[in-house]
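ok trying again, last paste got cut off:
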Amino acid sequence: MSEIYHFVTDWRFRAPLQKVWSVVLDIERYPGWWKNFRRVTITRGDGKSVGSVIECEVRGSLPYSLKYALEVKEAVEYRHILLDSTGDLVGSGRWEFSEAEPSVVKAVYYWDVATTNPILNFIAPLAKGALARNHERVMANGYAALRPYIEGSANFEEDFVRRNYASVERRGGSTYIAYESAEVFVDEAEHQGIGILGMEGFIIGEFTYPALSRIADFSMAGNDARPDFVVWSCRQARALLAGPWRSPPAGAEDQIHSEATGRYMIDFTLTKMSAR
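nice, full thing came through this time. structure:
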């Protein structure tokens, strides 16, 4: 009979609940953040809604990889998500999210599974402690990997500028992001729990003052009070970048002088990290 393992992992983050939920459940990004996840593929759904299926390959400190599929059976946004596991690990997983105290969010993972690997099942009575320690190390790696994305840098914009200096220009106290890097900027802002209050499109020449051509204000009509403002505003920004703002501004319609030349750049106005 297969040995059933019961693991409980308790993580604490100083960040908004919405942000903790968003990053912890962004499992498709795990391979780029969490070294133990070799592969993650969402084969159905979005990975968070009921019916979604996620295929995973994980390798810990022991000399083998585990391949399993997770199906979302139940999901209550910002509260809990229930998963069924099949493959090398059979059983269930459950994430529960709650505010442990002001400004601190608790994310608890319950992982109740058995292995289908005959070798692991054979050695389980002797190696149960080693398997438990392996799981603990994998989860500790996960906490260390995800925490910076959840709690974030004290100055998101400064950090982005430092890493993407070739795509950034600063003039008159404003930071302009090259259009080709704008979507990356929005993605990273969302993962830091930062919303987009507004954005402005410019043509910036080497020796000319930035020529403003486009303005979008996502905070109008009380939208900045929406509980989902971070996700909503970033979605609006991406839609503009992929649609009406995709082509560089030009001509009278965009209020650009016919002789204006330069880089197409975006100036973003952001919420404060602690606001959401």
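cool. The chain has two domains: 4-151, 156-275. The first strand starts at residue 4 and ends at 13.
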